[in-house]
């Protein structure tokens, strides 16, 4: 009984506010990493990202190997939490990446496993990933899985100015024999590194089920290795801010996102380069 009572907030939100979570979070909140969250959920055009295997495989780091860990708690509710890990490895054939992502709790969970690859021809980069997503519902409601294919491209147009684009679930996969498909969207954006201290990012995301979402953010290096960030999104309307500490081998990022009407959600990630 006590366990059930502790789970009531998560049950209430998943059932009583199903529309809000389906439209505004489960799909639009499809970004990993506290840095990306703080930058208004932008991710499709930021080069050498530790979390690019999830967002745009063509932007995975070209020179370093890395492993990163991420946690995000929706509106401070423990039952509704994102956890993820990402890894990339340089080889003579290009960059290979892998990721694992879990959302939910014992009554409803979504687990995703993916592998990715990228390479480049000069300043033009290309990549893709294959993922398997498994949804498990508590009790006797069963489970189902689906395999999705994502592709991405990116290019450094001029020094510091990057363009990126991504298409998700191009194979239009659905869960089992249901008509519930994996998220499908098209995203395109730019990032611009102004001098060495300031970076601007903007992108447009169109999920086939929801309105166009505009996202933008800015990052400023206030002192060496210390960064501040802020961002906004539309559809859904969110505001975010965060901080980061980045060295040649270590990266720590924290973020807070204000979602209307759900409230504040914290996030943190930690990465190591080697």
Keywords, separated by commas or semicolons:
mainly beta; 14 strands; 274 residues; disordered N terminus; 14-stranded antiparallel β-barrel; Porin; 4 helices
In short:
The protein is mainly beta and 274 residues long. β6 and β7 form a beta hairpin.
Main beta-sheet annotation: 14 strands, antiparallel, barrel
The CATH topology label is: Porin
**Helix residue percentage:** 10-25%
CATH architecture name: Beta Barrel
Structural class per helix/strand content? mainly beta
Alpha plus pi helix count: 4
Low-confidence stretches: 1-29
The name of the CATH superfamily reads Outer membrane protein transport protein (OMPP1/FadL/TodX)
Backbone CA Rg: 18 Å
Number of strands: 14
Series of H and E elements: HHHHEEEEEEEEEEEEEE
Class, according to the CATH hierarchy?
Answer: Mainly Beta
How far is it from the N-terminal to the C-terminal residue, by CA? 47 Å
Domain count: the total is: 1
Mean pLDDT value: 88
Task: Produce the secondary structure layout.
Layout: H1 2-16, H2 18-27, H3 34-38, H4 52-55, E1 66-73, E2 81-91, E3 94-105, E4 108-121, E5 124-137, E6 143-158, E7 161-167, E8 185-194, E9 198-207, E10 213-223, E11 226-233, E12 238-246, E13 250-259, E14 263-273
Antiparallel strand pairs: 1-2, 1-14, 2-3, 3-4, 4-5, 5-6, 6-7, 7-8, 8-9, 9-10, 10-11, 11-12, 12-13, 13-14
């Amino acid at each position: 009984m006590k366990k059930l009572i502790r789970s009531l907030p998560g049950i209430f939100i998943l059932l009583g506010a199903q529309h809000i979570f389906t439209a505004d979070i489960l799909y639009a909140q499809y970004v990993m990493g506290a840095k990306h969250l703080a930058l208004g959920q932008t991710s499709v055009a930021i080069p050498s990202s530790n979390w690019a295997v999830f967002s745009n495989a063509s932007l995975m780091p070209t020179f370093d190997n890395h492993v990163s860990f991420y946690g995000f708690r929706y509106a401070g509710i423990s039952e509704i939490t994102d956890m993820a890990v990402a890894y990339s490895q340089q080889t003579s054939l290009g960059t290979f990446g892998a990721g694992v992502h879990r959302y939910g709790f014992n009554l409803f969970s979504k687990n995703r496993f993916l592998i990715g690859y990228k390479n480049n021809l000069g300043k033009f980069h290309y990549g893709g990933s294959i993922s398997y997503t498994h949804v498990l519902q508590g009790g006797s409601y069963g489970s189902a899985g689906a395999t999705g294919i994502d592709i991405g491209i990116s290019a450094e147009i001029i020094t510091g100015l990057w363009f990126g684009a991504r298409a998700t679930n191009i194979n239009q996969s659905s869960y089992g024999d249901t008509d519930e498909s994996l998220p499908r969207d098209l995203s395109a954006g730019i990032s611009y590194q102004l001098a060495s201290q300031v970076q601007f990012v903007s992108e447009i995301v169109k999920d086939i089920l929801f309105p166009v979402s505009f996202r933008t953010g800015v990052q400023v290096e206030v002192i060496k290795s210390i960064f501040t960030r802020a961002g906004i999104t539309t559809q859904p309307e969110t505001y975010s801010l965060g901080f980061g500490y980045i060295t040649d081998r270590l990266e720590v990022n924290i973020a807070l996102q204000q979602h209307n009407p759900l409230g504040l959600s914290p996030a943190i990630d930690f990465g190591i380069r080697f």
